[in-house]
Amino acid sequence: MIIFVNQINIKIWKMPQFEQNLFFKVPEPTLRRLPWYLAYAQLVLKDGESFLSSTQIAKNIAVDASMVAKDLSYVHISGRTRVGYDVKELVDVLENFLGFTNSHNAFLFGVGSLGGALMHDNGLAQFGLEIVAGFDVKYELSGTSINHIPIHHIDRFVELQEQTGINIGILTVPVDKAQAVAETMVEGGIQAIWNFTPYRIRVPENVVVQNTSIYAHLAVMFNRLNAIKESEKNNKK
User: Fold this and answer.
1) What is the pLDDT of residues 192-219, one digit of tens each?
2) Are 129 and 137 in contact (CB under 8 A)?
């Protein structure tokens, strides 16, 4: 549905009622911590340990032990009293729960320096993500490839999406193009967007968006660093 305000086109997304009531059972903070637990459990497994307690996990990841136990309750694994969790089972359960054992194909939109770097990153496949094609508005990039991944003009997106059924998109375009490209992605069948731009894109409620702005993280790091420097300066007075 399009409405017109002062001759500017504004797109209003309208969703069915059941989509508006979509409910995710696992809290997002828990989902952010589970990969930390997995990474630590994998290290412990490589060291030959058989069991791992929530206290050990908490100590090495710097979170509260009760939080670890609560987080792991969402993945339906329970530890043994005074023994802890079976490490191999914990790794298997977490990998399956997080979707890292399945292969998820994705399209990448915006083959600039960041997009190209992600296409070069073979490590994504270890976590279940395969970038199978990149799209860009630059015609000179069409027909080329990065890391054996083909690059197409954005005009071919809908055609290739219909052929493959891929519903995951990675957004690495310039900030002023983020919303427009996100709308193109959604209209073309993308249901999950990994957004690397600092722009908070607006999409229907039934489209999953994960924002990963390296610039926002830089801002936090610089702010914290400046606070430490200021504190040290004041202490010297």
Assistant:
1) 999 999 999 999 999 999 999 888 888 8
2) no
